[in-house]
Structure formats: structure tokens, C-alpha cells
Amino acid sequence: MKIKFALSAAGLMSLAALPAHAQIEIHWWHSMIAVNNEWVNDLARDFNASQTEYKVVPTFKGSYDESMPAAVAAFRAGTAPHILQVYEVGTATMMASKGVAVPVGQVMKSAGIGFDPSVYIPAVASYYTAPNGQMISLPFNSSTTVFYYNKDAFKAAGLDPNKAPATWPEVALAAAKLKASGHKCAYTTAWQGWTQLESFSAWHNIEYASHRNGLGGMDARLQVNSPLHLRHIENLANMAKQGLFIYKGRGNVPEASFVSGECAMITTSSGFLGNVRKNARFGHGVAPLPYYPDVPGAPQNTVIGGASLWVISGKKQAEYKGVAEFFKYISNPEVQAASHKRTGYLPVTTVAYELTEKSGFYKDNPGSEVAVTQMVRKVTDKSRGIRLGNYPQIRTIEDEELEQVWSGKKRPKEALDAIVQRGNELLEKFERVNKR
Amino acid sequence: MEKRVVFRSRWLPWTLLAPQIAIILVFFFWPAAQALLQSLQQSDAFGTSVDWVGLDNFRALLADPQYLASFQVTSVFSILVAGIGISVSLMLAVFADRIVRGTAVYRTLLIWPYAVAPAVAGVLWLFLFAPSIGIVSYGLHAIGFDWNHLLDSDHAMALIVIAAVWKQVSYNFLFFVAGLQSIPKSLIEAAAIDGAGPWRRFWTIQFPLLSPTTFFLLVINVVYAFFETFAIVDASTQGGPSRDTAILVYKVYYDGFKAMDLGGSAAQSVVLMVIVVMLTVLQFRFVEKKVNY
To answer: Which is it for the CA torsion B61, B64, B70, B75, positive or negative?
Structure first.
């Protein structure tokens, strides 16, 4: 009797929980942690509250290099999500895997929703556009590389805290002063491949790889052993020898040494700003990436990092309609401007940028406009972006070879030549596997 | 005369063996066969196009100087892990065997690390040795030793060896303690009466009688160093600096799961499989002859 009652009560409750008609669930796998995880959940919640037909379910699937293999395994097993967030270095792999993703323009069109790729910031849009001109994935969270410095440490070293070093020679001078004032780690860098080779190339308007850095096709090959690249790595190697540049590890690991106050200057992602604002116990400044003043055309613009949203194939038409509605919602300029202010990621459309500027946000939050102004520029064929196959492995090769430079085991020339040679082997392999 | 129980039935022994055979087939032979198949294929990340490439993956491996270099790294790592792991735990077990009070507490504490996952062990030691913030590296710095596993290969190797040994010591310890307990006390007492000191008693009685255990642990530890340590490397050094701690199994993991090159990764695991089979056979052929059962 009791059991019967409990059962029927449970039945009633589950009925009550269901809306008038069954909602269509849209699964979204992402890699956002901490404050950015809250942001993703809020986006889904607000969209779900705005209509009754669809329910977006965001799921955290580990870091970028974990969520993509997870999606690969799920795809092979037929249980892939509808929407997958993929980091920029995975873009070439996603594009080359035929039949895995549905181009975002097509998803929008078949849902009867207008989609205009030209509203996106050029450097962002062109990155996610296939050689045939079709936009493949939806730009979501984009970042770029900037320069951070510790104003308190600058003051203590007798440097002007309101004037960041703009060029690499100035960085070396500031580092020497910081070291003389007793600072153990004057300068460090996170994402060494991204900041010192990729962004460095675009910033100085030279090629990182041939064929428009891989945007032109899969037969691109690395060009990072050029005289200018060599000059820069030699300069950093010298700084390392003098103890002005201290190597603090791969990926974003070195960021902790800036927040803790140990390192006074760092080059890393613009997405790091939120962390600095929240956790740094000192005055901090954000500045554009340093450059070499005698290089014609420098500074140009920096390349994007971050991720975009991919629609996975093999789902029902009604579900794709829901995906399109959700994309329409997050592409709304107000939603985008709010996301930009909240996360420090770049505004991905020009309208969102203008909205943010009008609201006076950049005046109130000095530093947040640096990344934007570095990106919102007219791009050249050499600075549009870098899209290469087997890119995650190329980044690892860059880590491995540069570490040997910083420890003094290899000369900069040998290391850069090795990056080109080993990287090109991977590019050739990618071309071979995907061209068939 | 030897006493043997013989099954009269034809099907009963097979039925009794069936669960074990099923487990071996499903969890060992099937994955191994899969690896063998995949090592002959090349496919894109999502497996939308799969091509049979024959021995191309193996040829590419043998032509890769990085891959050949990681053999050397792996042998240094395995010798250190097996050597240090076995000697440290043997020492601890001999001590544990001799103490009278608090044996249970001492043993329990030594067994704890076994319950720690390899990745956690890696992170734990990474924190302790983190340049400039780790407590051990801070202490080392205070006595004038500049610890930096980010750029110094020897330091990085020391770090992963320590983490891998620490994790395996408990397992070895358990077996050594059991082995020591099974040595008849009368033998040791007789030697003591004849005037042999603890050192002498250990080398002439305990160590030779422990040899089956030591041999078993040697096989197990080599397999452990070869196969089960990738999480430690991934969590602490990620194969760096350069590739100086990129042991073979870490490269299998990296290429397969991070770089999504299943063909290349499968070829490497086949190579690894062959190496371990060969090592085990060698150990049984040559080392086992010195074992007294």
C-alpha cells in the first residue's frame, strides 16, 4: 500500500516536472573552468528561460586537449554532442575531417535564420572560414596575446609604472633594472610557441608558415627559421643567459608566477586578465605585445587563440533548429558585449565592440581594450591567422626545442631549424592522411 | 608417489576455466589484437577515413630519431625505478621484520602510497619540487642547490623516478615482508648462535631465500616502469625538458590521446608489447636460474 502510494506520488511529481510538450535537449560540450564555467552555464540558463521548446545542456569535458579526444571517441561510438567547443589549434583537424561537422552557415540557413559572417571581426571570421569561403564554426571565445607588468615592481626598480616597455630592447632594459633592484624573475612568458613565434610573426607581418599560414591549404610549411625569428630567439636566449628571462614552464603554467608577484613581466593570453584582476595583490598594467621598432610594418596585429563552436553531424533536423536558435541567441550584440565585459575574451563582432565602447567600459577598465585594439585592425595575408594540421603537436615541438635554447643546450639557429624540420614532417603527414 | 586428482569429465575442467579464459580474451587478447590491427592503419582523428598502410607506421617510427632517443630514456628510467624501488623496499621490509613494537602501524603507513593514483603521485611530487614555490626545492635552494626540473634534464628524471618509486615501494614492501616471514626462524637463530651478525645473516640466509620474491618483483617492476608510469610523467614533466623524460609509454599516450594519431600510437604499443615480452622471457631464461625455490 505504502509502496503503491509512493510510486504514484513519484509518478505525479515526474509528470509535473515535464512541461506541456517534451523539450528538445541540445548537448553542449565545453572546456570552460572557474569564472568562465559560470559564464557558459549562465548563457545556457538564460537561453532556456527565453523560450520553452529547447533545452541547452552544457557539460564540462575537461581541458581543450581532453574534450576534443572525448568528442572523437563519442563520435566513433555515435554519442557525440550537438555542439562542441574546439580550441583554435584543433580547427584544421576539424575542418579536414569530412562529414564530422555541419557548417554553421548551413545550420542557420536550414533553420530559416539569417546569418551574416561579415558582422564578425575580420581576423576572427577569416580564421573559421574554409578556403571555399564558407564559415564552418561559430566564433565563441577568442583571445590574443598581450603583455602584463607589475606596476609596484616597476616603481621599486625606478621605472615609470605608467609606461610599459613597448619594444623588445625596452623590455630587456626594464628587465635589467628590475633585476638590479632585486627582482629574481624580471620577465617570463606563457605559451612560448603562441607568443614568441606565432603572435610574433603576425605582429611583425612576417609568415609563420607558407600559404597564408595554412589558411590557403594543407600544403603549408613552417617558416619560423627566418632571420627575424632567429634574431628574436637569440635575444631571448641572451636574456635567459643574463637571468633577465626566467623560463617557467609550458602552456599557461608560468601565469602563476606573475600573479604571485615573483615575475614582474609576462606575455600571455588576454584571457588571463580576469585572473590577474581577481588574484594579484599589486598594481598591474596591460600593454600591447613588444616589437622590434626597426622592422617595417610592425606592429601589425596579433593572432587569435580561444575557441569556436562546432555543430556535429548526424543529428535530427529539429535538434539542429534548436542549435540555430541558441546560436542566434548568443550572437545577439547585447549578449556578446556582456560576455566580452564579463570574461575578457574579445568581442567577436564589430557591433559588440562598438556597444562596449559606447558603454564607457574601456575607460572604466583600463587594460581591457589592449587586446581588442590589437585585433580590430585591417589584417594582411601574413597576419590573418595560423591554421595548421597536427597543430597541438607542433606546439609541443616548439616547447621541446625552445627549452633546449633556454637551458643553453642548443643554439637558437639549430632549434629553429629543428622546429621547421620536425614540424614539416607532421604537416606532410597531415596532408597525406587527409588529402585522400 | 605423486598424488593427482584427475577430472574424468571432459567438459568440467573447461567450464571451470571458462571465466578466467573469458577475462583474458576480453581484456587482454582482444585489445592486443585491436592494437595490432590499428598499427597497420592510418586514419584521420574522427576515423572517417581509414586506410591500410601495411608497415608504414613502423617504418616511420624507426626513422624517427626522437623515438629512438626515447628508448634510451626509457631504459635509464626503468633501471632506476626497478633498482631503487626494489632495494629501498627490501631495506624497509628487513627493518620492519626486525622491529618488535608498532609493527602494525609501521606496515600500514608504508602501504598507504599504494592507494594513491599515479597522476596524483605525480602532482604531489611536482608540488614538492616546484621551482621557487615547492618546499623541497626551497630547502634545496637554502643549502645552495639550485633545483630546476623545468630546464635541467637530470633533475626532471630524478623527479619522475622519485614519484614512480614512491608509488611502487608499498607493493614491493608487502611482498618482501611476506617473504621474510616465510623464512624459518630456526635457520636465522641457528646462524645467530654460530656467531653470524645481522649483516651476515641477511646476505647468507635471508637474501638467497628471498630470491623467488625478488625475481617476481623484478618482473613486476619492469612492467610497471614500462607501462604504468605515463600518468606520473604526464602530470609532472610532460616529457620535458625537451624530450628528456618522454618515456615510450608516455609517447604512446601522447600520440594516441592528445595528438589523436591512432595508427602511430598503436604501432608504438605493439613495439612496447614486444619489448616487454622479450624482457620477461629473458628474465625467465637467465635470471630465474639463480633463483632458489
So the answer is: positive
